[in-house]
Amino acid sequence: MFSKQLWPLAFGKMSFVVFILTSALSVTPLLSDIDKGRRKVVHVLEDDTGAVIVQTAPGKVVTHRGGSITLPCRFHHEPENTDPARIRIKWTKVTDALQFEDVFVALGRQQRVFGSYKGRVFLEQAGPGDASVIIQNVTLEDYGRFECEVTNDMEDDTGFVNLDLEGVVFPYYPREGRYKLNYHEGEDACKQQDAILASHSQLHKAWLEGLDWCNAGWLEDGSVQYPISHPRDQCGRKDTPAGVRNYGYRHKEDERYDAFCFTSKLNGKVYFLKRFKKVNYAEAVKACIRDGSAVAKVGQLYAAWKFQLLDRCEAGWLEDGSIRYPIVNPRSRCGGSQPGVRHLGFPDKKFRLYGVYCFRRNEDETAGGTETTKSPTNSMTRRKSSRSIPVNATSVI
Hints:
The protein is mainly beta. It folds into three domains: 51-165, Immunoglobulin-like (Sandwich); 167-263, Roll (Mannose-Binding Protein A, Chain A), CATH 3.10.100.10; 266-361, Mannose-Binding Protein A, Chain A, CATH 3.10.100.10. It has four helices and 29 strands. Residues 168-263, 268-360 form the Link domain.
């Protein structure tokens, strides 16, 4: 079953149409009157000029970091004998600031890929009218909205598709304390921990899964928000409803908050290094190196908790100098009744009181397989992602 998103332009007797085509399994409908699993209803209207207007629900495709995904886009032009060499296909990435980043362009057989997409983006070439592209080795920065533009001489039209990532949101603040980061520092802090600033939709999804955090943090659009699952007086009054609290868009240079970061599936493995004695921070770094690894970053530990189901009731050093440990199956002696990554703060790096979590990158990273995204002429499959944890909670002790 497929859904279509069409934007037609009429020029005299010639018409040109671009439409997004996605598998029903990959599409998130935004129209409330469309039931899950049913064929989308496409409403076709005609105005006084004879121009056709087509309306349908937009959708998204979902993958994970390191995976491959098809961004679907198909077009139809009349008359159908239009020279394919005169068709120009262009893909761009659209940011929240309505800025456009070139991704891919093709004119006939000539093709060009831009920036970080070089070597990762290819035309699917599933037959006439297919403008879909395949993105391989998907990165965290690929998350977001893409525009497909098809041009034929003087006619052009565009379609949009959203690329979503499976992942986990986590709050972050540095050793200096809470509310110490302006927007750019928050962005850098997330990157240093193998993550990116989360979007509002990612934070909202995390809240639906149980994330509860009483400190406001930056999001990638420049807004400051925080999720409350259990209202209380210390977090905006007990009698207010649960939800994602929003401070609005704040000054990116002058105002300081924490950050909400987002990370996805790892291209390696996080593990607790077994040792007979506790280590200080410098000894922890050396121990991981001797084991062919590096001290794990905060985002890597969260990803391991979410996707590896890493469960370890032992506190250990992380790369930023914090002490944390991941709990999938809560028990009384391991910090509370909710699953999550426990945070014990930033102790003196000279203390020999903890173990260490190491990260070992895959030597032969194959980027996983792919989930199924189908078009009328081609399909590509991808391995299903690991079972994820039902509750996305973060604990601080």
